[in-house]
Amino acid sequence: MDRVGNAAKILAGMRSNPQDWRIEDLKIVARKYGVIHRQHGTSHVTFRFPERPMVVVPARRPIKPPYIRQFLALVDSLKVEP
Q1: DSSP structure string for 29-82
Q2: Please, are residues 45 and 56 in contact by the beta-carbon 8 Å criterion?
Q3: Contact 58, 43 (CB under 8 A)
Q4: Which is the most buried residue in 22, 61, 66, 76, by most CB within 10 A?
Q5: Interstrand relation of 55-58 and 44-48 (parallel, antiparallel or unpaired)
Q6: Separation between Cα atoms, residue 51 and residue 8, nearest integer Å
Q7: pTM of the model
Q8: What is the sign, positive or negative, of the torsion defined by CA atoms of 61, 14, 5, 49?
């Protein structure tokens, strides 16, 4: 299954229900829309895009809704169409 092809579907799902997402789902969306992510031996993943505020998300599951909303705000700031 092509997970990157599902990025728009994952993004739509996050918008409708910001609960119970995995860090891998955020990474798939990030890769699709050019958001850089890194996790160097820490329990958090940092998502960045030039000239946008970075978003730091705990990597443990499930990710709490406030972190999903912050991630969605970053993606939305890129003017991404679902």
Answers
A1: HHHHTT-EEE-SSSSEEEEE-TTS--EEEE-SSSBPHHHHHHHHHHHHTTT---
A2: yes
A3: yes
A4: 22
A5: antiparallel
A6: 23
A7: 0.85
A8: negative
Fold designation for 4-76:
Metal Transport, Frataxin; Chain A (3.30.920)
Q: Which two structure tokens, joined as six digits, stand for 40?
A: 């160097």
- Residue listed under structure tokens 């891998």: 24
Q: Which residues, other chains included, contact 20 with Cβ-Cβ below 8 Å and sequence gap of 6+?
A: 62
Q: What is the pLDDT of residue 67?
A: 94
Residues 37-70: pLDDT tens digits? 998 777 899 999 998 889 999 988 889 999 999 9
According to DSSP, residue 30 is labeled: H
Strand order from edge to edge, sheet including 55-58: 36-38, 44-48, 55-58
Helices (H), 1-82: 7-16, 23-32, 65-76
Query: What average pLDDT score do residues 8-34 get?
Result: 92
